[in-house]
Design a protein that fits this description.
Layout (H helix, E strand, L loop, with lengths): L1 E6 H5 L5 H15 L4 E6 L13 E5 L5 E6 L4 E4 L2 H17 L3 H13 L2
Length: 116
């Protein structure tokens, strides 16, 4: 199962030119149609209320343990500290609630693709 919340800027900021962005957005739309993939978009409207300012991954293992992963420009960090990971889980839960629904997110992905 993959559940990702994608910042709207990732859909709107052209990287690599229009053709590459169209291909990227097509791929996102195709992946979003799979039963074990959920994409939600965190809209610009969240502004400063978005809980994260950088990339973050939470990985849940079969034993239900969770680790976090984040990056700077120079390094990646695996975080196992329970207090930090739990705080990130709470913030991510809030982000999921405030992000667009699965259907609205797919609509926005398709709209961004059409606008290219």
């Amino acid at each position: 199962m993959v559940h990702a919340v994608i910042d709207e800027s990732a859909l709107r900021r052209p990287v690599g030119g229009s053709a590459i962005m169209r291909a990227q957005l097509d791929h996102l739309a195709e992946m979003a149609a799979r039963p074990h993939v959920i994409f939600q978009v965190a809209p610009f409207g969240l502004a400063e209320h978005a809980p994260f300012r950088s990339f973050l991954t939470l990985l849940t293992f079969a034993d239900r343990s969770v680790v976090g992963y984040t990056e700077t420009a120079d390094h990646g960090f695996v975080v196992r500290d329970d207090r930090t990971v739990r705080a990130w889980e709470k913030a991510y839960d809030r982000l999921q609630v405030e992000a667009l629904t699965r259907a609205a997110s797919l609509d926005l992905i398709r709209k961004a693709r059409e606008e290219l």
